[in-house]
Amino acid sequence: MQLMISKQLRKLKNRYAQSVLKEIPGKPGEYLIDIITILSSATQPQTQKMIAELLELDKSRIAVIIDALNTKGYTYTSLNPADRREHFVFLTKKGQAMQPLVQAAIDKVNETLYKGMTTDQILQFEGLLVRLNNNLV
């Protein structure tokens, strides 16, 4: 019996996330890694709504995650002066200090993940993932 592709993708996603988390001191949560990556690469301030859309989470779930990260000192929020219903999310100095650790962990896990693959195979694999995702949108 052939496994559903969703099961294989879920296993890969979970193993990947756990592998990255193992490489970071203090064992931060998976969403901290995602949010640090989003905020550190953003060219404009990110709102909770924007982050929720990128992570495909509902607004109430992202609010709980951001509140926890604020409490732990990794992020802080600020009201959008143009729309007081929106909150911008920013990295604190502590959150910014995590960025190189997160990137190093991602790089190390990617090196292991892609071991034995050529650059063309890696690009093909990543392209196929994008195509599969786009086919279901």
From TrEMBL:
The keyword Amino-acid biosynthesis does not apply. SMART domains: HTH_MARR. The keyword Transferase does not apply. InterPro entries: HTH_MarR-typ (IPR000835), WH-like_DNA-bd_sf (IPR036388), WH_DNA-bd_sf (IPR036390). Residues 1-134 form the HTH marR-type domain. GO terms for molecular function: DNA binding; DNA-binding transcription factor activity. It holds the Pfam family HTH_27. Keywords: DNA-binding, Transcription, Transcription regulation. This is DNA-binding transcriptional regulator, MarR family. It comes from Mucilaginibacter gossypiicola.
